[in-house]
Known about the structure:
The protein has about 350 residues and is of the alpha/beta class. It has helices at about 10-20, 35-50, 65-70, 95-100, 135-145, 195-205, 225-230, 250-260, 305-315, 325-330, 335-355, and strands at about 1-5, 25-30, 55-60, 90, 110-115, 155-160, 180-185, 210-215, 265-270, 290-295, 330. The protein has an 11-stranded parallel sheet with strand order 1-2-3-4-5-6-7-8-9-10-11. Helix 2 (about 35-50) links the parallel strand 2 (about 25-30) and strand 3. Helix 1 packs parallel to helix 2 (about 35-50) and helix 9 packs across helix 11 (about 335-355). Mean pLDDT is about 75; it is low at about 65-75 and about 220-240.
Amino acid sequence: MTVDISESADGAIMQLESLCAIPSLRDVRVKGDVAPPGQAYALLRYLGANPALERLSSAPNADIASPFAIFNAGIILGEDGWFPALNSFHGYNDSLIRIIASSSGCFSNLTQIHITFNAVGFPLAGNGDRLSQRLQIQRFFDFVGSRCHALQDVTVQAFWDIDGEQGPISLNKLSSCSQMRRLVFDGPDPAMNPPTDTDIIAIAEAWPLLEFLHWQGAFAARDTPEQQMAWSGSAPTSQPYSSDTRPNATFKSLAKLSQLCRHLKEIEIDVDCQDDLGSDDLVEAMPELERITVFRWNLTSRDVSRTASAIAMLAGPWMPDSTLGKASDWISSDAYKWSQKIWEEVFVKIDELRGVPDK
């Protein structure tokens, strides 16, 4: 069902109450540009009380958690039984944070969150200042990590920080989500947020069931209408890392992922190819591996051998029934734009190390 929360005629709140009370209601998408505070408050109150609602999503401009209706009034909308069946939320900016903050209970069934942080429209901090995008994202991870312990699928997409505030973003609070299977984090700026070995090792230790890990500094492109709308300006062209913005994570991260996350199917993290593996960094073959994305690996000609060796160990020896064949078929990268010849050498070396036949 789609609910339009645009400003409307009298009686809209009564209509919301009857719609949101439908016993079989499972899926609600909220749209609209302007919601009167009373209507936004009523929408959340009625939806939160529905015992069957499983999926809630909002359009980019739909303010489903009005700060005027919630924070300014100092209202706690729900207790432990609020949104009792909700397992999926798709929204924008801090809408989910506001919903969580307005409840005194935990969202024990919420397993999937997809959030997009736009480059405009961030709310004000308590002192009246706009929150930077980095602080918005950090607040999101802290809130959901402390209140949504059943999470299995988290996608956070953010566009470049127009405030330019740099600094790391910590996912430490998410370590309590031990059932996590999928993390997608497209951060606002590659120079601001490349994950470190400490970050990746903490993930590996906390999430043994992880299947999909995608943690990148920035979007490679903004080609869809939704992305163009969210980014209110010209999209910068993606570039490889320079010496000043080299990745922080090394092959040590891949080694730890291979040891502790045995169900990983896809890996996409930035890796510094110029650091050798330590003597204790054992890379184990990953039986379910399907794809590695090497979007920003600062590869040079002298790194071909160590890079090919690490990836070949992750894939394991080639067998006639192997899922992974030629390296070029399961390693993807936009890095070819800048170092195609070097990556072709890596592919040849990986196939040699794994014993992949020419045909």
